[in-house]
Amino acid sequence: MAPAPVRRTPYKDLLQPALQRRFTTAASTLLAIAYIQAVLLGNWSSYIWAWFPLGPAGIKTGFFFLCGLSIIILRIAQYHVGLRTSNSGFQTFAQNALKPQTVEAIVSYAISSWLFSQVYLWSVPASANLNWIAYHTGDRARLNEKPLFFTTHFIILGAWRGILHLYRDDDRLLLGSVRSKPGSAKEGDASNPLKRFGDEVPLLLIHAGTQSIVSVIANVFIYRLFLRTVAWRTALLVFRPFYNLPKTNMLPASIPFSVWLLLRCISAGFMLSFVWMAANTAFSTFLVKEPVKNGKPLTSESKDPNGSLLNGLKSKKLSIRCFAMWELAFIARDFEVRRKMIYEDIDRKDGPMWSQVYAICLDVLKSIDARIDNYGKAPAPPAPVIANPVDNAKPAQRISQPVRDDPVLLSTPQQKTFRGEIEKAVSQAATSPGQRSRLSPLAKKALLDAKGKLAVMKQEATSSRNPDSPFGYTTHRFLGSPFGSPFRQEFGRRLNAAILGTPYGEVSLYINATTALSQLAAHSLLEDRYGNVQRDISAIIRTLTTVTRKLEAFKASFPTHWTDVEGKKDAPEVDAILCALKESLSELITTFGPYSRDLRLGLTDMRLAKEAAGLASEKSVQAQREMREIK
């Protein structure tokens, strides 16, 4: 009797608890920061209640923690892996400006800042004169403009921080990558995230202080010129039902700015900015840990480790697929027991474990090859719809003549005008675009003149470095300024969009796929008892060679756009993929070079592989040095 099949645990069911534990660590770190800030704002007239958690300090800690927790919740709702791939910053803005996530980010920061401002106003002593209602003469209540400016300043600060959050793509998780040689490149070391977070704290303090000072200076002018009247009337509308305020909406004669108030705005803004930055940094640091638990791969807890890993590698969600590929790369390099499990797992429903892993990794690398081949080509037309046999039936023969739709009364012919001819041509182009144009000579001449002027303007714009073109010179100056930065189509951005795809492209997916493939192949020489990997070595080397050569040639021939005024051909993401491809190819050549004939690799295959890996150039340089020494 065949044994009962083992239930395969989905990869996300293994990944989600790990992410929840990391979220708890990030939230605990944020809670400690909130408690320190609450103690600093405490009333030290009582040395016990100033720090005792079950008193005012605990209440303020809870509210400050909520201000940072709202940002972590925002990150959980909107996190993604991979960089945003687009040709320019303006294109990214056009793609994301109207999405609900954009409004959600700005509103989350604005509510967080408003809550922090109200807790701060509640915490300061009465001598600070920051109560919403003031009693100057008699018993008549007056609206105090100082807390109004304080609150408005923080709402603007929150909205601006939300925009900055979107601009810098803070929702992205930077996943690590595994290289063939440990320590050969940055691998996203997450072995001690608490230490990494501590190393970031001084930089966070500097950024928080800078942001608080700049925001106060800017908001003084913004509030005075644009928002004072609206904020004053809104505050009166809110407080009039509860207080006997004057009926007039006139603004106070004096401005609310004072040195002490601005200093309080700076100090409170510094505290809030640090909470936000600490929340973002803690989330990004603690959640992006290696997919390893207790020194073992994450899927080791599953009853079917290989099946759970395959489930993650085949996931349609990019984040799960990237985490699974990251784990596979670690297994291929560092865990011998799990490697042997992959080699020896040959009785799976969809084929041996190695064959499935080999196909998945190869498809990831071939996707780069496919994007290079399809770059600049028109998208393939949709597949033709197969007609229903009923639709192909011969229509019934018409017995009577169709009803004529000619006008009953013939109008007198009108004189042809230029405007009429243009309207007629546009109407014909809209209703029957396949027919030839029947523009009059006058309209044709005007159309040709307009096309000529547009061509001249386009040529002047694209030749922005031409000093003889005023329009081109102005365009060049604008694109070189900070205001023109969103419109520049820089070399690196365009190359990333072409190689990694849109709207997101994760570099670590390709690096880890390359490492996993090469490491599993290299270790199979000693660990693969059945010799299943040997059949695919030649295909792996040929694929790595083809992808490396194509990617290198594509980058070298990729043109710069006329808006790229700097013209720097820098693409660190593509360079990282190229470096991983060359490292893996070099290791495979070194390992399987002596057995190239047995693996059906010809001399041409090995020569091309060595050239792609850069081994041929290194040997030629070494030979030249030896010749010089002999001479």
TrEMBL record:
Transmembrane segments: 30-52, 58-77, 148-167, 204-226, 257-279
Keywords recorded for this protein, A-Z: Membrane, mRNA transport, Nuclear pore complex, Nucleus, Protein transport, Translocation, Transmembrane, Transmembrane helix, Transport
GO CC list: nuclear membrane; nuclear pore transmembrane ring; spindle pole body
Swiss-Prot/TrEMBL GO biological process terms: mRNA transport; nuclear pore organization; protein transport; spindle pole body localization
Gene Ontology molecular function: any one: spindle pole body-nuclear membrane anchor activity
Presence of keyword Zinc-finger: no
Chief place where the protein resides: nucleus
InterPro entries, sorted: Nucleoporin_prot_Ndc1/Nup (IPR019049)
Keyword Membrane: yes
Membrane topology of this protein: Multi-pass membrane protein
UniProt cross-references to Pfam families, sorted A to Z: Ndc1_Nup (PF09531)
Subcellular location: Nucleus membrane; Nucleus, Nuclear pore complex
Family: Belongs to the NDC1 family.
Name of this protein: Nucleoporin NDC1
Phylogenetic placement of the source organism: Eukaryota, Fungi, Dikarya, Ascomycota, Pezizomycotina
